[in-house]
Design brief:
CATH architecture of the largest domain: 3-Layer(aba) Sandwich
Largest sheet: 5 strands, parallel
Number of helices: 9
Bound molecules: magnesium ion
CATH class of the largest domain: Alpha Beta
Low-confidence stretches: none
Strand order of the largest sheet: 5-4-1-6-7
Length: about 220
């Protein structure tokens, strides 16, 4: 058993991954979308601030009026509201759409594997399409390893996984050691707060470098530098 919930399995099937073609499995927030800056703007408008002291949300969000640090349920509630209100208009990371387009043109199949709340799946798909990234979206919950392993097995070809979250690299390497894992954090200020996880195979700093590393991981050559 792969432990995947039925709702996730249905989306994985619907992603239409073809056998024998190289596969890119990409996270969305902080890889394709400028999540953190947008989230921080959102909470600042509501009387909260972000500390930028570590690579996590919980512990870094404060109520401006009294400096109180929000606990996990409170941060989770802010995140739910943020995605409900903003999922469709989080700005894209510059260069991502162009790089993905070049990779797609040389035969790479692309699936976006995101942990956005399930209610925002359509909003995320709309936002990706609007920003010239019209790729299949799979909404996952928790560890990404089982879903990534399922996709890579379906492709039966070289596969690469990109994510800003260290835990997701641990999960993917554990579930499918053959998937190349690239750690990427789009926002420089956030990137400075997290080291490359040991489970990852590389940590490109920019989309051009990431594009090059993706292609190299898949045994291809492509635009980047
Ligand atoms: Mg992310």
């Amino acid at each position: 058993m792969n432990g995947l919930p039925a709702a996730t399995l249905a989306q994985l099937e619907a992603a239409g991954v073809e056998f024998g073609r190289p596969l890119l499995i990409s996270d969305a927030d902080e890889v394709l979308f400028r999540f953190v800056e947008t989230f921080v703007d959102h909470i600042e408008e509501r009387g909260y601030s972000f500390d930028w002291s570590s690579f996590r949300l919980t512990g870094n969000v404060r109520r401006t009026s009294d400096g109180a640090v929000l606990d996990q349920p409170q941060v989770f509630a802010l995140l739910q509201t943020f995605f409900a209100e903003r999922a469709e208009d989080i700005p894209p990371v510059p260069g991502a759409a162009e790089a993905l387009g070049r990779l797609a043109r040389i035969g790479v199949q692309i699936v976006v594997l995101t942990n956005i709340p399930a209610a925002q799946r359509d909003a995320r798909r709309v936002a990706l399409a609007r920003n010239r990234m019209p790729y299949p979206v799979v909404v996952n919950s928790g560890d990404k390893g089982p879903a990534a392993a399922w996709l890579a097995a379906r492709a039966g070809a070289p596969a690469v996984f990109i994510d800003d979250g260290p835990n997701n690299h641990v999960s993917v390497k554990q579930a499918a050691p053959g998937i190349a894992c690239l750690h990427f954090v789009a926002t420089e200020r956030l990137a400075g707060l997290v080291d490359m996880p040991a489970a990852a195979d590389g940590r490109p700093a920019t989309w051009p470098a990431l594009e090059h590393a993706i292609a190299a991981s898949l045994g291809l050559t492509c635009g980047g530098r």
